[in-house]
Write a structure and sequence with these properties.
The complex is a heterodimer of chains A (74) and B (262). Chain A has one helix at residues 29-39; strands at 4-11, 19-26, 47-52. Chain A has 74 residues and is of the alpha+beta class. Chain A has a three-stranded antiparallel sheet, with helices on one face. Chain A starts with a strand and ends in a 22-residue tail after the last strand. Chain B contains nine helices and two strands. Helices cover 62% and strands 2% of the residues of chain B. Chain B is an all-alpha fold and 262 residues long. Classes of the chains: A alpha+beta (74), B mainly alpha (262). Chain A binds chain B through residues 1, 3, 24-28, 30-31, 33-35, 37-39, 41, and chain B through 45, 47-48, 50-51, 53-55, 144, 147-148, 150-152, 155, 159.
Amino acid sequence: MIEITYDVFARKKRGDTLHHIGYVDALDDETAKVYAWTTYDEENWFEMCVVRRSQIIPVNRDEGPFAKTSGDAA
Amino acid sequence: MSALISVEALSAEGRAALERLVLGLADSKRLMGIRYSDWVVGAPSIETGIATSSMTQDEWGHARLLYAMLKHLGVDPVEVEHNRGADEYANLSLLDKQFENWAALVTAMVVLDGALSVVLRGFSEGTFEPAGLRVPKMLAEEQFHVSLGFAWYRRLAAASDEARSLLRDATDAQLPATLAWLGADDAPAKVLVELGVMPTATALTTSFQESVGDVLASCAVDVGAVEPASNWDSARGRATGRPDAESVERARGDRNRSLFVE
C-alpha cells in the first residue's frame, strides 16, 4: 500500500509559535492524525496539525525534504 | 436520565448485575490492551506499532479505572486483578487468544473496541455516578481507536483479494459473538435496565449497528443480517470458554509478581 508523508506541526500553549516537530508516513489524513498524535506524545500539546509534504511549496531551496514529493499518491 | 442509584440501597440482584457489568468491561479492556500489545512489534509500520502501543496504554488505563469502580460495590480490585483463575474472567470471548493476523486486529478495532465503546457510552449516561464521572474521558480517547480502525478497515477492504479475504473472515468470525454480548437480554441485563444503569440490549445493538454499518459495508458485510452466537453463559456474563493461560498470566502480571511493591 502506498503511504503518504505528512509533516507534523504543534504548539505547546495558545500563542506559542507553531513548530515543525517531525513527520509520519500514513495511509491517509485520518491515519496521519492518529500516528502524529501517538508518535509525538511527549508533550501535552495545545494544538497539533499535519500537512501533506507534497503541499508544502519550497521558497528558496530546491533541495531538502520539502522539495521532494516521493510516496505521495495524492 | 433517572435519579442516580445508591449502591447501598441496591438489592443483591442489582449489586450482582452491576458487578458483572463492571467486571466484564474491565476484563475486556485489560484483554483488549493485551491484544493491541501483541502487535506493537510486527505491525505494518513503525507508526502503526507506536499507535498500537498507545492504544495498549489507553486500554490498560481504562481497565484500571473500571476495576477501581468495583470498590463502590465492596469488591477489592487488587484481588480481582491479580488473583483470579481463567474461568473467572468475564471478558468478551473473542479476546481470549491472540489475533492471527493484522486484518483480524483491524477488525477487532472496529467491531470489538467499537462494541465496548457503545456499552461504555450507555453506561456513562446511566444512573451509576462513577461511570458518568470516569467514562467520558475513556470515550474521548477511544475516538483515535475508531479513526485508526475505520481507516485501516476501509483500506484493507479496497486492497488485494488476500487482504479483503482475511478481513471478511475476521469480520464473519467476530460479529456473531459481539452481537450476542451486546444483545444479552438475561435477568442481570434486565435488572440494570430497570435501575437505569444501562440502555436495553436492543438499543445497544442498534447503536452498534449504526456506528459500524457503513465501514463494514466496505467489505460487503451487512451487519443487520448477522445472527448472534448462541453460546451465552449468563452466570459469567460472557460466552462459553476462557482466556488462554498466557493471556491470564499477562493480565494478572504473574511474572515477577514477587517483585511487586505497593
